[in-house]
Amino acid sequence: MQPTFACVIGRVPVSSKQNGAEGEVGDRNGSVCSVTMKRCCTYTLGVVAILLLVAGISLVLSHVFPRFIHSMVEKEVVLKNDTDAFEAWENPPAHIYMQFYFFNVTNPLEVLSGERPAVVEVGPYTYREYRPMEEVAFQENGTKVAAVNTKTYIFQPEMSRGPESDLIRTINIPAVTVMKKFQNVFLANLVSAYMKSLGVGLFTTRTVGELLWGYQDNLLASLQKFQPQLDDVFGLFYKSNASNDGQYVFFTGELNYRDFARVDTWNGGSSLNWWSTAECNMINGTIGASFHPVITKDEMLYIFSSDMCRSLYAIYEEDVVVKGIPAYRFSPPSEVFANTTANAGFCVPLGNCPGSGLLDVSTCKQGAPIVLSSPHFYQAEEKFVEAVFGMKPNKEQHQTTIDVNPLTGVVLRAAKRLQVNVHVEKLPRYRYLAPRLRHRCSFFPGCQ
């Protein structure tokens, strides 16, 4: 998600097979309409001065004065001006990279006839990510600090498989979204006829740049005449470049070291309103870039992710060493996305659960049929893996991990890996798109 922060997001490759010759893409296989996201990060030795200071003291004194060291760290690791902790939080000194891998559909006609999708993963398409905290303002006598986390992405051709102009064949997300929105008999017939006249189908071929950052969609542009509030531009990360996800208010850790960098409110609210239960709507933890000092193996690290529209947690997995510095590795357990009573609130409406390992986020994505999972359906039900030819779940490549120094709470290395899938279902009003489609529904990749 290198000796710094490496961030990766999957993407759907432009397979030259659509022109008769399939390009070589290695052994990572993707799926029909899915984007895999991997966000990784590594802080190198010497990046954060406070880590060097505290680590040096701990090596000498940890066996003699552990309580003294913990007490000192708890007091020093606070978000306030002119401290190393604040400077590293405000403007991360490490390099951050976001890499996109796309899954290219190799058998679109067969899919329309009801056969299992076959896909190939292509990537990475790498971007340098800059993510400084801006509009920083301390509140309530320095116990809280408000900020926006602006992110800018710059393409890195030397670290990418190909240029942003590479073509990708994938599911036509705008078309699927429109079809699900207009199912009234009269409107569906009008939309269906218009889509047919435009030659709009279930699949589309676009460049990497268009799929990520946006392109004007003819179908959306036509519907905009009747619904002016409708945006005629679509992109998986449209409006996300040189932008932010809203204002955060963080606790500084001044009153309690365990509150260091913990989110108090996001966009003015202390909870969300997308999910079915108050527990699932809670905003818990930090944004994952840092944690409180003096971390123990038996605690849960909570993280709030606006990308995923929810909070989640990670648990201790093993001891690791990063550039000679000891760390605890934490990772989200399979229970975080399991189809259990504890997660029932993430099913909207109640009872409408896609299955273990998947998270339907359409409720917070303007109705777009977006379903999130780990890459290649790692930790998901086996039926999703088997539903798409090309899925190869692998813990080392597809698990989300956080390596954090237990004394300081500094993240030494992390890998955030996420896959974006599109839920496609058979809609009788749009039969012309797939007259022989036999499956009731399909996840790209995967079908329930």
Automatic annotation (TrEMBL):
The keyword Transmembrane helix applies. The chain crosses the membrane at residues 43-65. GO terms for cellular component: lysosome; membrane. It is found in: Membrane. Its main location: membrane. The keyword Nucleotide-binding does not apply. Keywords: Glycoprotein, Membrane, Transmembrane, Transmembrane helix. GO terms for biological process: protein targeting to lysosome; receptor-mediated endocytosis. PANTHER family: LYSOSOME MEMBRANE PROTEIN 2, SCAVENGER RECEPTOR CLASS B TYPE-1 SR-B1. Belongs to the CD36 family. This is Scavenger receptor class B member 2. It comes from Takifugu bimaculatus.
